[in-house]
């Protein structure tokens, strides 16, 4: 059974940084298409960024461009979401997700959309105080 587990969330002051982790079991993350999403209270889930497994290209929602980046550690089968210059509007539960097809797709071609992903983690809370 594929499981994704996010960690690294917490409370941080505006302008600070956090690094979220997404670890997987029964699924190889490195080389897969991966998406990061977030959902704030009372709001719809929003795609934050994605990386396409086949060629490493990335897409970001405009609000995080230049502040958020994705990286990975193949030895740990873990991907990271580095979040810098955090703002109060970044407060949300953050989720990582992967498609069942792994790298064998052309997803992450534009907007970061949830319907491209099959497996989701349970989320980790990020709270940015202003």
Count of separate DSSP helical elements: 0
The assigned structural class equals: mainly beta
Task: Output the helix-strand order.
Answer: EEEEEEEEEEE
Q: How many strand segments?
A: 11
Q: Tell me, briefly, the overall form.
A: globular
The fraction of residues assigned to DSSP E strands is over 45%
Structural topology:
Layout: E1 3-7, E2 10-13, E3 18-25, E4 34-39, E5 46-51, E6 58-60, E7 68-73, E8 78-83, E9 92-98, E10 119-120, E11 124-129
Parallel strand pairs: 2-11
Antiparallel strand pairs: 1-3, 3-8, 4-5, 4-9, 5-6, 7-8, 9-10, 9-11
Could you please describe the fold and organization of this structure?
With 130 residues, this protein is mainly beta. Helices cover 0% and strands 45% of the residues. It contains no helices and 11 strands. The strands form 2 sheets. Strands 2, 4, 5, 6, 9, 10 and 11 form a 7-stranded mixed beta sheet that branches. A hairpin with a 6-residue loop joins strand 4 and strand 5.
Compact description:
This protein has 130 residues and is mainly beta. The chain contains no helices and eleven strands. Strands 2, 4, 5, 6, 9, 10 and 11 form a seven-stranded mixed beta sheet that branches.
List keywords for this structure.
130 residues, 4-stranded antiparallel beta sheet, mainly beta, single chain
